[in-house]
Amino acid sequence: MSTSMKTQTPITQEHIDFYQENGFVKVVGMLTPGELAELRVYLEEAMQSEGENSKTTDQIGGSYYRVLNQKVNLWRYHAGMGKYSFHPRFAQSALELTGASGIRFFHDHGLWKMPEDSKATPWHQDTPYWPVNDAQAGMMSIWITLDDVDVNNGCMAFVPKSHNFGKLTGIDFLNPQNIFDYVEGGKEEKQKPVIVPLKAGSCTFHNGLTFHYAHSNVTDKPRRVLAIIFMPDGITYNGKEHMVTDGLGFVAGQPITGPRFPLLAKSEE
Ligand SMILES: O=C(O)CCC(=O)C(=O)O
């Protein structure tokens, strides 16, 4: 007799159908008010301290910092972040949306868009930056906002169905190419971007191939986001450098598994 209890999620069949068709979906109220308050404290602490194990990608004054104040693998520095980066509700939601047999953690990151001299996050896909084969296999991110977001402080926009355009080139965030130039034969012309404002505690999920963009922040407060990248179980390493896999001894073709990449949700047999 099975004693396991399925983790409850806010995901409905409508969310699943929308995600599968469009490559992104908005989910209202992913965090409870108590979780939102706690995560704000943990994320503030994690972003403000310099840890040995988590990596800040640029410092104040740097060009990338104007696009994103980003810190990767917060869970390795702040134990409280582990509660959220490995939250069963988030991983189970990813499982339900993707239809994968299992969902592994790849990495978390704090993505703050700072006020003053802020730059938009250019249109891009995520998959070209990840050291994985199986581009079509459906790696994805949850993007949870701790602040209400709209076009004034860095809400996201997505191109519906662009996850079907294939894996294109990595975009240079500081000197961005126009990703739409890489799409064959005007496929994108039929698809207009959708802007997604969100209330604090809500989230979007997006496929790693989906074109997305975030507006600059013209307010006087940081836009605070926790994003977590999930991968379907079985995704393999492609041998390229990446800050979360470097030094761990992976060889090309090997599935990305092990203690840094736990299986967080799996479908019931
Ligand atoms: O938060 C942002 O500005 C961009 C987020 C993003 O590109 C992502 O989560 O993949």
Q: What does this protein look like?
A:
The protein has a single domain (13-240), classed as Sandwich (Jelly Rolls), CATH 2.60.120.620. The chain has five helices and twelve strands. It has helices spanning 13-22, 33-48, 63-67, 79-85, 88-98; strands at residues 24-27, 55-56, 69-72, 102-113, 121-124, 140-145, 156-158, 194-196, 203-207, 212-214, 223-232, 263-266. Strands 1, 2, 3, 4, 6, 9, 11 and 12 form an eight-stranded antiparallel sheet that branches. Helix content is 18%, strand content 22%. The chain is globular. The model has no long low-confidence stretch (mean pLDDT 93). By secondary structure, it is of the alpha+beta class. Residues 68, 111, 113, 121, 126, 141, 143, 154, 212, 214, 225, 227 line the site of 2-oxoglutaric acid (AKG). Residues 68, 111, 113, 121, 126, 141, 143, 154, 212, 214, 225, 227 line the site of 2-oxoglutaric acid.
